[in-house]
Automatic annotation (TrEMBL):
SUPFAM superfamilies: DNA methylase specificity domain (SSF116734). One of its GO terms (biological process) is DNA restriction-modification system. It is an enzyme of class 3 (hydrolase). This is Restriction endonuclease subunit S. Its EC number is 3.1.21.-. Belongs to the type-I restriction system S methylase family. Residues 38-157 form the Type I restriction modification DNA specificity domain. Gene3D superfamilies: DNA methylase specificity domains (3.90.220.20). Keywords: DNA-binding, Endonuclease, Hydrolase, Nuclease, Restriction system. GO terms for molecular function: DNA binding; endonuclease activity; hydrolase activity.
Length: 168
């Protein structure tokens, strides 16, 4: 039994070493011999639409408390979004630059307290102007993948915000 256990331990160590090797190779994004393992694309190349929203005049009570979900950036907290704190009316939608955002779009807070944070809307909704709304072309990229890439790029997005939107 001790001899078999020793063999299994040695085999396990070799498998772990092999796993680590292939994991690092997979995540290195290096082309091996020009084979093109990774193809880099900009958001503009993989999105159907990138837009921001708008805010109806807050002085017009008839623009609010309707049946259209309206998202503020403070609600974008690295999460899925199933509901919004505020709603607007059709009149508010028609008299502002707010626009409908398709379900499963990736939303990035561009400025404010949650700058750089991301979310995925699980319902059709509208947003304020501080939200960058990215509707993916699902033949080019999965919205969950883009969400996680942006989620893991928070520091870079926030730094971009802090340095005045310059290329970093």
């Amino acid at each position: 039994f001790t001899e078999l256990e020793g063999e299994l331990e040695a085999e396990l160590k070799l498998r772990q070493k092999q796993y680590k090797y292939y994991l690092n190779k997979l995540l290195s994004f290096e082309n091996d011999g020009g084979g093109g393992l990774v193809e880099y694309k900009t958001l503009g190349e993989i999105a159907l639409k990138i837009t921001s929203g708008g805010t109806p005049l807050t002085s017009k009570k008839e623009y609010y408390d309707g049946n259209i979900p309206w998202l503020n950036t403070k609600e974008v907290k690295d999460c899925r979004i199933y509901a919004t704190e505020k709603t607007i009316t059709n009149l508010g939608l028609e008299n502002s630059s707010a626009k409908w955002i398709e379900k499963n779009s990736v939303i990035v807070a561009m400025y404010g307290a949650t700058a750089g944070r991301v979310g995925i809307n699980k319902i059709p909704l509208t947003t304020n102007q501080a939200c960058c709304n990215i509707t993916m072309d699902d033949t080019k990229a999965n919205y969950n993948y883009v969400y996680y890439v942006l989620l893991n790029s928070y520091e870079k997005l926030f730094l971009w915000y802090l340095v005045g939107h310059k290329k970093i």
